Amino acid sequence: xxxxxxxxxxxxxxxxxxxxxxxxxxxxxxxxxxxxxxxxxxxxxxxxxxxxxxxxxxxxxxxxxxxxxxxxxxxxxxxxxxxxxxxxxxxxxxxxxxxxxxxxxxxxxxxxxxxxxxxxxxxxxxxxxxxxxxxxxxxxxxxxxxxxxxxxxxxxxxxxxxxxxxxxxxx
Length: 171
Fold this sequence. Notes:
Largest sheet: 8 strands, mixed, barrel
Shape: globular
Mean pLDDT: 85
Low-confidence stretches: 146-150, 162-171
Order of helices and strands: EEEEHEEEEEHEH
């Protein structure tokens, strides 16, 4: 299973992106700032392609189980210079600690995402059902000023709330 994260905006102390699985918009993401030099717990991981392992987390599993989220939290493996990079629930950069947060909507005026629990549950349902190896590819598509010239179809659908069944001209 191939997951793609496209970072498209730098807002304050966060980087906003979209997560797609098989080309289908899944959710928004929020990460720390992209930096040339790593600052522990405050830097987005390098763009690249990484295996994803579904496993328990010493930090999240007990807490998530109590919240009805299960014990499994996706781990990005082999990130150079990083350990313990997970995809998890959260809303602002302070919640990332170098990990990827997922959410259903993005407050376009700030560095916040919302609907994180619902997005995480939906993502985990898809990942847990996969019998294939899981891999995430992270791309930086941030243009000067953080604005996109023309959003991709998954990003457009995620921002403007169109469903997969919606016909969008020129796509």
